[in-house]
Amino acid sequence: MTDSATIEPAATETPITLTERAAKQIAKILEGEDEGTVLRVSVQGGGCSGFQYGFTLDDTKTEDDLVIERNGVRVLIDSVSVSYLAGSEIDYVDELIGSSFKINNPNATASCGCGTSFSI
Q: Residues 6 or more apart from 94 whose CB is under 8 A from it?
């Protein structure tokens, strides 16, 4: 069982979670940014498997964004991406081959070797 914060998205019955590791890493990234800057996670068309995850810094919340918060760190997810990410866990991994955010997405039927693109 993973220790994660959960916010129920309006568009789905299945929660999207943010792990403690991810929240700590996001906080480190945001230390040098302007106040109000948050991480935005999105799903976009492209990548070698059909869809790819996007991670950007943003200071604008739209009306239909899902906001996930853990330990004072906020993550925004647009309403279209929420349906692709339903049930997912946003994590941060630090492995021998590198460090990165990793999305454990139960909706993905296939993914590429680098883990940044997937298909449904």
A: none
pTM of the model: 0.78
For residues 11 and 14, the model is more confident at 14
Question: Out of 3.40.50.300, 2.60.40.2550, 2.40.50.140, 2.60.300.12, which CATH number does the structure's domain 4-119 have?
Answer: 2.60.300.12
CB 77 within 8 A of CB 42: yes
Burial class (CB in 10 A: 0-12, 13-18, 19+), 70: buried
Q: What is the pLDDT of residues 24-44, one digit of tens each?
A: 999 999 998 999 999 999 998
* Conformation bin of residue 98: beta by default, left when phi > 0, alpha when psi is -120 to 50: left
Look at residue 47 and give its three-state secondary structure: coil
CB atoms under 10 Å from CB of 26, counted, come to 23
